[in-house]
Amino acid sequence: MTIHGRENLTATIAVAALALFGGLFISVDGTFDYKDALTKSIIFLETQRSGKLPPNHRPAWREDSGLQDGKLMSVRLPATSCFSFSFIMRFVDMQVDLVGGYYDAGDNVKYGFPMSFTVTTLAWNAIFYKSELQAAGELGNAEAGIRWGTDFFLKAAAKKNKLYVQVGDPVLDHQCWVRPEIMETPRTVLMIDENTPGTEIAAETSAAMASASMVFRATDKAYSRRLLNKAKLVSQIILPPCYSVQHLRHFFSEHLSVASLWQLFQFAKDHKGTYDGECPFYCSFSGYNDELLWAATWLYMATKRQVYLQYITEEAISANVNEFSWDLKYAGAQILLSKVSQPNCSSPVNLTH
């Protein structure tokens, strides 16, 4: 995916450059081909794929890998010969299909935080620069890249109030730099839940699925709806701990039941927090407010429901915005909202007061 989290915009930079030139494949000083850069940027992501690769996979030297991720042999058992029934049931519950997704950088670890951000930004480009991608003959490949990520997220979020966020042991993996096809390092699985919250990762995963739902809305409505429904459920893990009466009224207007509303409130109130399980490799230095606003923005873009816009306007905070990256999302949300007007108001929505 990226090296130290700094280059995971490689593919999107090429797409943006293409868009800036109105889809014309021109050269700078007669030497640079933006269409070729775009193609190679998307192939870079294809090279990072984990799982059962499709027959038309362009990097022919890559093969299937990580086919047991999340399954029985991926989990370390304690060195004991006797297990209680409750332990066995917990162990069975740990088994999940986590095949697929993307490896990170030159590693064989799958990190949910930068992976979901990469899918979100790729989906953003597929939405806003669709015609340019189509002209370059890369729209189908970009959509396939997005789906490769969202298929994995659907698996990772398959269990209620749980999100699997990492596969692999980064410390041991970094000691053995090998092709994923022949890796023998542990495929340790990490997750967030009520006891181990991870607001940033849950919010970014929600943003990825919400934005991807917009990409597939015209071509695969069933898949688009599935992504959007899951994005809403994942977002329930990470909404704020305190709701105003106006918030409650909006939720009721969206036909949520009293039981699900109470569960949402309790979960957000009691289990909100930063997840540091991916440190020191992907620590969230900016906190989780930017991811919450970023996710709410994409959910509003995908649904047009006022509850998300109200959350954005009421939870906007003052912040220094000097970059857009896997860790800091304010600028991205501001750009998306720059042309979105509040009801009965002609001015755009602001994230910072």
From TrEMBL:
Its EC number is 3.2.1.4. GO terms for biological process: cellulose catabolic process. Keywords: Carbohydrate metabolism, Cellulose degradation, Glycosidase, Hydrolase, Polysaccharide degradation. Residues 34-341 form the Glycoside hydrolase family domain. Pfam families: Glyco_hydro_9. It catalyses: Endohydrolysis of (1->4)-beta-D-glucosidic linkages in cellulose, lichenin and cereal beta-D-glucans. One of its GO terms (molecular function) is cellulase activity. It is an enzyme of class 3 (hydrolase). Belongs to the glycosyl hydrolase 9 (cellulase E) family. This is cellulase. The lineage of its organism: Eukaryota, Viridiplantae, Streptophyta, Embryophyta, Tracheophyta.
